[in-house]
Every structure is written in structure tokens, then in C-alpha cells.
Amino acid sequence: MIDDAALQFSAGSLTLLNAILAVVMFSIAIDLNPRDFKLLARSPKPLLAGLISQFVVLPVLTFLLVLVAQPQASVALGLILVAACPGGNISNFITHRAGGNAALSVSMTAFATVAAIVLTPLNIAFWGSLYAPSAKILRSTAIDPVSIAITVSLMLILPLVLGVTLNAHRPELTRILRQPLQWLSMGVFIAFVVIALAANWALFLAFAGGIAGLVIVHNALGFAGGYATATLAGLSPFDRRAVTIETGIQNSGLGLVLIFGFFGGLGGMAVVAAFWGIWHAISGLTLASLMSRTEAAR
């Protein structure tokens, strides 16, 4: 039973994953400048639409998928947890490849990361408790929202603040660091996920087949929800591409940290997050390739 299985992940490996994600967040943050936030304050609609899509629309669509598919408890909670995470670290790169508003994408990642301190544990607890099988897991798991908030803050918010500060005071240095650091951090993160899966390969293969279809549908709902939200908000095609991709690319690395840190590496949850980490890169790059064939009006 996948609900009884647990992927093996040492404390040292979890610390290393935390460090890798912090570096990834730092590499995103050095693209930001305090004036970017002032511009968004004057014209906040694209950012607000993106945050609503990320933290309201996607969790609602996820819960509807869970109600229709009726997956096992740990799989359902894995889908809910991934949907509760902020945008993924490759969304900015993919938005750029798609010809969308990369500056908006980076800002959405930053604001969603800050909002995740409160909204990620809130969404996990709220939506997870509404599905009876996953509610049992939540009741038997000692989840401290404050601990989750501290984890998110140290791993994502601190490097975000450091990156923005460095870019504001030493822009010539961040200009040199930006591209090599982004590629390096992404390569190290992918290598880490591959190595972690290799250590649990038999378990991953045993359950991934049954979960793959759900993850693919879930990811498609994320892109569709982002596109629909941006369209209803009246955003330009340029901004719409950013919101679409930001909603469909989730920070599954953060999801894995929370799963191993608070849920003991519970099988269904871990396999969902790990497969998400692989699939959203494939689907996102494919979507970007299709979008880039036409220039987006601004």
C-alpha cells in the first residue's frame, strides 16, 4: 500500500536539499531590484491575478480533481501539498523562453514565496481536511504551521532578501553571477532529485505508473487555471503567458522538503512531488516552445 510506504531520505540529504533550494532562490532574487516592486505597486493587477491563480484557483481545481479521481490518501495529500506551494524555480526561465513577461514572472515568484509563509500551511490544512482519507493523515501528523513558516522563511525568504539587496548595491556583480548561477543551481537541483530517486528507485517505479496520469492532469489544470484567470482579469497576452506558466510550474522541491520534514517521506506524497518535479519541466518547456512561435502583444 502506497499510504504505508515511505521513501528513504537522510537528515543530511534534507539539509543539502534545503541549501540547494536556497541557492536556487538566491539566483532568482538577483534578477530583482527594489524598483520592480514599486512598478508593481503602481500597476498591481497582473501580480494580483497571478497570486489568486496560484493560491486560490489551483488549490480549488486540485480539490475538484481529488473529488473526481478519489485517489489514495497520501496521493491526494501530495497533490494538495504541491498545489499549496509557490511557483517553481524554473518558471522564470520558461516564461522567458515562451516570450512572456519574465519580469512579472520573477516578481510573482518572489511575492508568492513571501505569501507562502502563511498560505502554504493554510492551504494544506484546509483542503487536506476536506477530503476524508487525507484528513486522517493530517490528524495523525504533528504539523506545526509555525515550523513550516520558519522552514519556508529560512529556505526561501532569506535568500530572496539577500539577492535583492545584493542586486541593489552591487549590480555589476549580480550581472556577472546571474546566468552561471541560475544554470548551476538548476543543474545541481536536477542532479540531486535524480540521485534521491535512484536511492528509492524500486519504490518509485512501483507506484509512479499509477500516479503519472494524475500528475499530468493536475499539471494541465494548473496551466489551464492560470490561463483562464489571466484571461478573465483582462491581462495582455504578454502578461497572460507569465501567469499561465507560473501557475503550472510549482516548487516541488519545497514540496519534497515539507514531505520529508513533516510527513516522514510518505510514499504517495513523495512520489507525487518527485514526478511533478520531472513532468512540469517537460510540459513547461513544450508549452513555451508552442507559445514562442507567435509574439505576444503587450
Shape: globular
Q: Could you give a short account of the major beta sheet?
A: none
Q: Tally the helices: what do you get?
A: 13
* Whole-number total of structural domains: 1
Q: Give the % helix.
A: over 70%
Q: Helix/strand-derived class?
A: mainly alpha
- Give the second-level CATH assignment, the architecture: Up-down Bundle
- Enumerate the spans where pLDDT stays under 50 for 5 or more consecutive residues: none
Number of strands: 0
SSE run: HHHHHHHHHHHHH
Q: What is the end-to-end distance?
A: 50 Å
CATH class: Mainly Alpha
Please state the average pLDDT score: 84
The CATH topology:
Na+/H+ antiporter like fold
Description:
- This protein is an all-alpha fold and 298 residues long.
- It is built from 13 helices and no strands.
- The chain has one domain (11-291): Na+/H+ antiporter like fold (Up-down Bundle).
- The protein is globular, with a radius of gyration of 18 Å.
